[in-house]
Amino acid sequence: xxxxxxxxxxxxxxxxxxxxxxxxxxxxxxxxxxxxxxxxxxxxxxxxxxxxxxxxxxxxxxxxxxxxxxxxxxxxxxxxxxxxxxxxxxxxxxxxxxxxxxxxxxxxxxxxxxxxxxxxxxxxxxxxxxxxxxxxxxxxxxxxxxxxxxxxxxxxxxxxxxxxxxxxxxxxxxxxxxxxxxxxxxxxxxxxxxxxxxxxxxxxxxxxxxxxxxxxxxxxxxxxxxxxxxxxxxxxxxxxxxxxxxxxxxxxxxxxxxxxxxxxxxxxxxxxxxxxxxxxxxxxxxxxxxxxxxxxxxxxxxxxxxxxxxxxxxxxxxxxxxxxxxxxxxxxxxxxxxxxxxxxxxxxxxxxxxxxxxxxxxxxxxxxxxxxxxxxxxxxxxxxxxxxxxxxxxxxxxxxxxxxxxxxxxxxxxxxxxxxxxxxxxxxxxxxxxxxxxxxxxxxxxxxxxxxxxxxxxxxxxxxxxxxxxxxxxxxxxxxxxx
Length: 483
Fold this sequence. Notes:
The protein is α+β, with helices and mostly antiparallel strands. 55% of the residues lie in helices and 10% in strands. The strands form 4 sheets. A 6-stranded mixed β-sheet has the order 1-3-4-10-7-5. The longest helix is centred in the first third of the chain and has 31 residues, at 2-32. GO terms for molecular function: heme binding; iron ion binding; monooxygenase activity; oxidoreductase activity, acting on paired donors, with incorporation or reduction of molecular oxygen.
């Protein structure tokens, strides 16, 4: 027992030294600076576990509610072993996002950077982030959405919906994920659904995502270790596709695909292979998670609001009727722009669903805001869902009300109170793609089916959004209804 006791005493002594050093540092800062109220708590873990507790994505959660009531909308805590300013103040959050690169910079947790890759857009800052982001923006520009994405989005949506068996119970969340995954790998690497590489990628990606939401322990058998192994397999498959594409470029082969991302980056000699692969993986992650979550949320909220589902159905029936009269098949960009109530549904789904709850930033200069000091080097966590649930911005913010967007002033959107896709220089380049995917999916969904929840379920922040039971639903084809 002696060695174990000695080890325990040594660890306890080290912990006490760190604790009092941390507390003394905090007290010194308090004397010199006017920090927001709060409690740094214990070193290393602080209040991280409580902060990360799952809760309904349509709320701020018990931890935030309690701390806002006690300390106000801006408070300090110890998160992930670092002194952190947490903000549920919409004005401060906009200020943080708009000050990117001047006062604040992205601060991706080490565990996320390791699993996503050091060249991932989630981890990069400065000029290299702007370079990588510009590639993503060009790839998902409005021109590309019209010419390359729209037709394939509709094709993939129809395939998924046609595979649904009436009166059977299945996971709407998994169906949304399958739809989004198939679309992204097609446009990133020209991989079609059902191909062995596509199915292997999907399996590895599921394991990869489980590790993203796990405790970052790189030990045998842990979800995090398995995710790192899946990352290696995913990059190997992507690397093989990239090598094939580079070879075609070098040989000036005819028929080289022009509409996927590999075709674009394979021609850029200034990007290393590692950079390209991390970029593709980060775009797969961003495009898949956002779009699939939005589809699940829309199915969930519309099921609870039949009036909205019926109005949405009438809008899309009218669009379909007009296309038949013109002898047209397939949606076009003008059809998308005519989906006025659909866009209200999308805005409300993103507002109340809160796909992304918070972001990680770091102060790169001493910052003063509303009488508070934010020291250089401190972490800053803007709770972007706070604006979406603020009663001073939205009447009855806990209710699902798409009609609010018919009367709401354009000033609200211009003031960035809707921050579902972040904001400022790091605004998600795939925001418009996600909205287009949801609109097209809904166009075919509401004309083909009615649906109901097979079991009670609800969206949870964990911290990634998901449904504990997978959002089980039953569908009933509209063509079986009596006239």
